[in-house]
Design the sequence.
């Protein structure tokens, strides 16, 4: 309904409740999560099967088979384990499939980049490298530039890359929000064919009533030009915040998408 | 709790339900509205007694007596009728009292400006004049400049003026949001002592589920530097949107105001 890529993040086995239901092999529960996220505008269903490293591959297989039957949306495979990624990709590799994620870390490049190439997928790239999370804007930009060089060396077109300029909790790092926003603008100005992406809920880590901050951050990021987010798109008002912002930026003529979402009870 | 002036707009007799309860002289109902708005961070209680022109003065008197007993906040007197304004001001004229509103229209200047001077109040100034609502940014700026000259001629210091650059419904005028935002920036750059103010809910006129748009607009306006709003501050998530945005702009150290508002169930 818009040009924003929405990676729906709920099927994530690092969350206790989700992990328990998936280990119970509760098919209805998982299918319901997929349907709900799709109804609320997801463009991709993220699967994180990392509940227990020793079971990640089998859980990824079970989830990918189930999710790919429940929806026609492409999947975002969320793992640092190349065996789990490969297991998922062998089952379902629709156009638009995403590997979540690569970074500038040597080990991650060695383990994950070959799969992006072999399976011809999109990838979320995090602006971190073996020096860790960049402390400021300049350091983030250096990581972005280095990752772009890496992609070009491997003939990966930049429109397959969704660069996540990362964000740290605002409660301890208020200046980080400005770096994230400036990072998004830098990318769209310097690499217009590349996409931007933010896993935005980290901004509200450590404060109560996180939804207010997640929603407001989404508005600020979209205004800065963000064209993708990893979010719980079923959370109260997240989709409404996105559609409202797009309408006010003149990207939804006569508020058609906004009004249609209201009529179908998405917002 | 912040530097944003919040004019709480619920006591407004142009709304049918409110008008009926006030004509019934339902004291508990009105007092409850005052308390609710104060709890949710109002800095001013707006009173609009314009239910019936022939009763406006007596309704303004009844409301002002009641509201001024229920709270120690200053009142924002919302009327184009100088007799109603004067009646209210005679009862309650606390520091910070606002006349809502003056404009660049000749009749409004003649009727209302003398009261701003006589009672030494603040005033909300709307960027419209006898030519109507300015169609674009340049026309708005001309009205702002003219109003500033008028204030200076009358020895009204600009820190008593809250300039509302107005907004039209985004469903029919998507470009107007950009004018409103640019107007706010223009004012803060050119007249740093003057305040800005937006009666923001007009942005969502004509669309369903207006709350999403009102909240997102509030975020965009605060980022642009807005330091006051006429809002229903009890509406779902409005205060949360404001506090979240201030925290992310680095204007709420360690999210103290945000966390405190959550603990006291304001957000």
Sequence:
């Amino acid at each position: 309904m818009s040009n924003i890529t929405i990676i729906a993040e709920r099927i994530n086995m690092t969350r206790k409740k989700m992990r328990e239901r998936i280990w119970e092999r509760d098919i209805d529960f998982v299918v319901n999560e997929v349907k709900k996220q799709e109804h609320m505008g997801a463009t991709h269903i993220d699967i994180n099967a990392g509940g227990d490293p020793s079971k990640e591959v089998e859980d990824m297989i079970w989830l990918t088979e189930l999710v790919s039957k429940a929806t026609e949306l492409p999947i975002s495979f969320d793992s640092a384990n190349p065996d789990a990624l490969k297991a998922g990709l062998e089952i379902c590799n629709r156009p638009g499939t995403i590997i979540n994620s690569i970074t500038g870390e040597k080990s991650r490049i060695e383990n994950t980049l070959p799969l992006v190439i072999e399976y011809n997928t999109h990838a979320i790239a995090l602006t971190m490298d073996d020096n860790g999370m960049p402390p400021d804007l300049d350091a983030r930009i250096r990581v972005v530039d280095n990752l772009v060089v890496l992609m070009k060396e491997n003939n990966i077109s930049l429109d397959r890359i969704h660069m996540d300029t990362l964000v740290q909790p605002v409660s301890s790092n208020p200046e980080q929000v400005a770096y994230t926003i400036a990072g998004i603008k830098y990318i769209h100005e310097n690499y217009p064919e590349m996409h931007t992406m933010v896993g935005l809920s980290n901004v509200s880590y450590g404060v109560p009533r996180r939804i207010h901050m997640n929603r407001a951050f989404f508005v600020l990021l979209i205004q800065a030009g963000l064209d993708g987010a990893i979010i719980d798109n079923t959370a109260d008002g997240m989709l409404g915040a996105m559609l409202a912002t797009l309408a006010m930026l003149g990207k939804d003529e006569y508020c058609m998408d906004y009004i249609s979402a209201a009529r179908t009870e998405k917002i």
The longest helix of chain B spans residues 137-153. Residues 5-235 of chain B form a domain with the TIM Barrel fold (CATH 3.20.20.20). The mean pLDDT of chain B is 96.
